[in-house]
Amino acid sequence: MSASGGTRAIMAALGANLAIAASKFIAFAFSGSSSMLAEGVHSLADSGNQGLLLLGGKKAKKEANEEHPFGYGRERYIYGFLVSIVLFTVGGVFALYEGYEKIQHPHEVEHWYWPVGVLVFAIVAESFSFRTAIKESNEVRGKLGWGQFVRRAKAPELPVVLLEDLGALVGLVLALGGVGLALLTGNGVWDGIGTLCIGTLLVLIALLLAAETKSLLLGESADPAERQKIHAALVDGETVTEVIHMRTLHLGPEELLVAAKVAVQHDDTAVEIARAIDAAEQRIRETVPIARVIYLEPDILREGGAMDARTER
Predict the structure, then answer these.
(1) What is the pLDDT of residues 84-94, one digit of tens each?
(2) Other C-beta atoms within 10 Å of 278: how many?
(3) Contact 208, 259 (CB under 8 A)
(4) Angle between the N-to-C axes of helices 75-82 and 34-59, in degrees from 0 to 180, rounded to the nearest 10
(5) pTM summary value
(6) Which one of 60, 127, 177, 267 is at 20 to 30 Å from 293 when CA atoms are compared?
(7) Which residues contact 232 (CB under 8 A, 6 or more apart)?
(8) By three-state DSSP, how is residue 159 classified?
(9) CA dist., res. 151 & res. 159, Å (int)
(10) DSSP states of 90-153 as a string?
């Protein structure tokens, strides 16, 4: 994912959520709707989410140093994890609590035109943000389905914004349904039920994003297509004859570590092997530009292709 694409999606979501949060709190103040209060907190949490994603992107640009020789690319994963766990879950738990309180102590929705008007405005604003996230995602997801894109994306920003906007839109529809049923029936319990549904939705999204960002934090390999390209680039058929084994690891969304043991001819000189290794590194970087840290170990195979037991790891 390009950094610019992710930043555009984040800024669109941030602007929409700040405007929506302000309108929801105004509506809550005039109507007393708990759905509006829960949605207002949700929008504030969403705004905080975007702030954390922007902060993570900025910190990830720090130069590598002696203490962190592979750089700070994983800062983006850490802040994505914070978004998924802390803010989403806090918003979800708060909404569940407000919904429970509303059901226990229901009251009629006052000044119904405030929450309804704000909800309509919020749906329009969130749709704009969601459209921006979809557009930016389409530029990088290729032929992947949406589920595959969320699971396999190495950059956390777009999946987070996508699920955040989707959750917001569904939550707004639930809030509108809760307020509408409360107005039609005169029973404020429906407002609380709508709020409970919003809280459940936020918790489910939090769990999904937590699972995905946890995998990124633990360390994911390159995509299968990229691994195949690297494997093919390693072998030149002359000095480097085979890849014995290879490991890849994302140091960040746009930085890949490649470590491989390759087979060379037993009668090649040290100079020939060194030149072949340099050429293999160059081929890898040309084929997969994000492969920036490459470690290659030459080894010799027995006749018949069996690997010397001493070379096993």
Answers:
(1) 877 677 778 87
(2) 11
(3) no
(4) 170
(5) 0.77
(6) 267
(7) 287
(8) helix
(9) 8
(10) HHHHHHHHHHHHHHHS--PPSSTHHHHHHHHHHHHHHHHHHHHHHHHHHHHHTT--HHHHHHH-
